[in-house]
Write a structure and sequence with these properties.
Keywords: DNA-binding, Nucleus, Repeat. The structure is a single chain. By secondary structure, the protein is mainly alpha-helical. Helices cover 66% and strands 0% of the residues. The chain is elongated, with a radius of gyration of 24 Å. The structure holds a DNA duplex.
DNA sequence: AAGGCGGTCAACCGCCTCGTC
DNA sequence: GGACGAGGCGGTTGACCGCCT
C-alpha cells in the first residue's frame, strides 16, 4: 500500500487555472500569507489540490517573477550552475530569484540542452576527423590543426561556464566567484545581442570548420 | 484550407526530505 | 527511533500554438 494522495482526488479540478481561481488564491494569500497549503482549498472553496495551489502561487502568481526571454547573463548563469550541480533546479533558481525553478527547467530542456548538444556534436565530429586522418599524409599537420580547434572549443566552453569571461573557472570551482559580484561586473559591460552559443555556432565554429575541411580536402 | 509536426510551457505525478509527535 | 504529514523537488505530460507541406 503506497502513500495516500496529497488530497482527495474526487471532485478535484485539474488543468489550467482560470483568472477567477487566480484572484481567489491571490486574495487569500494576501490576507493569510503563503504556507499551510493544506488549508487553502478548504478555506477558499477552490476545487484544487493543495499542491496545485502552491505550484500556481510559486510558479506564476508570486510577486517579483520575471517572465519572458532570458538574458545572456541569465543563460550563462544557468549553463554554469547546471554544469556545477546538474539538474538541481531549485538550487539554480536561488541564484536567479526572479525566475522559478520550473521556468529554468523548461528553458534548459527546450533551449540550452539543444545548444549544449550541438556543441558536443561538433566537438565529437572534430575528434572523429582526427582519428580518420591518422592514415593521411598530412597527419601531423591535421592533428595539430584539429587539436587546436578542439582546444578552442574547450576554451570557449570554459569561458561561457565562467560567466562569459567575467570570472575564471578556477575561481568558480574554489567558490571565490559569486553571482552578485558578477552582476556588478556585468553591468559595466555592453550586453551582447547574441549569446555565446549563438555567436560560437554562427561565426567561430563555422569559419574554423571551413578551415579544417579546406585542409582535409587539400 | 487543413492536417501533420515540432516547440513551448503550465501543470501534474510521484518520490524525497524534513519537522513533529 | 519510527510513523506520519506537509511541503519541496525533478521528471514528465499534454494542451496549445505556429510553421510547413
Amino acid at each position: 500500500m503506497g502513500r495516500p494522495p496529497c488530497c482527495d482526488k474526487v471532485g478535484i479540478k485539474k488543468g489550467p487555472w482560470t483568472p477567477e481561481e487566480d484572484i481567489i488564491l491571490v486574495t487569500y494569500i494576501q490576507e493569510h500569507g503563503p504556507g499551510n497549503w493544506r488549508s487553502v482549498p478548504t478555506n477558499t472553496g477552490l476545487l484544487r489540490c493543495s499542491k496545485s495551489c502552491r505550484l500556481r502561487w510559486t510558479n506564476y502568481l508570486r510577486p517579483g517573477i520575471k517572465r519572458g526571454n532570458f538574458t545572456p547573463h541569465e543563460e550563462g548563469m544557468i549553463v554554469h550552475l547546471q554544469a556545477l550541480w546538474g539538474n538541481k533546479w531549485a538550487a539554480i533558481a536561488s541564484y536567479l530569484p526572479q525566475r522559478t525553478d520550473n521556468d529554468i527547467k523548461n528553458y534548459w530542456n527546450t533551449h540550452l540542452k539543444k545548444k549544449m548538444k550541438n556543441t558536443q556534436n561538433i566537438s565529437r565530429l572534430l575528434e572523429g576527423w582526427m582519428i580518420s586522418s591518422a592514415s593521411h599524409k598530412k597527419q601531423e599537420t591535421n592533428k595539430d590543426c584539429i587539436n587546436g580547434v578542439v582546444e578552442s572549443v574547450d576554451l570557449e566552453l570554459e569561458s561561457v561556464l565562467a560567466f562569459d569571461n567575467v570570472c575564471s573557472w578556477d575561481k568558480i570551482l574554489s567558490g571565490d566567484c559569486y553571482p552578485k559580484d558578477d552582476e556588478r561586473k556585468l553591468q559595466k559591460q555592453e550586453s551582447p545581442t547574441l549569446t555565446f552559443f549563438d555567436r560560437w555556432l554562427l561565426d567561430e565554429s563555422a569559419s574554423q570548420l571551413e578551415g579544417v575541411i579546406e585542409q582535409q580536402v587539400n
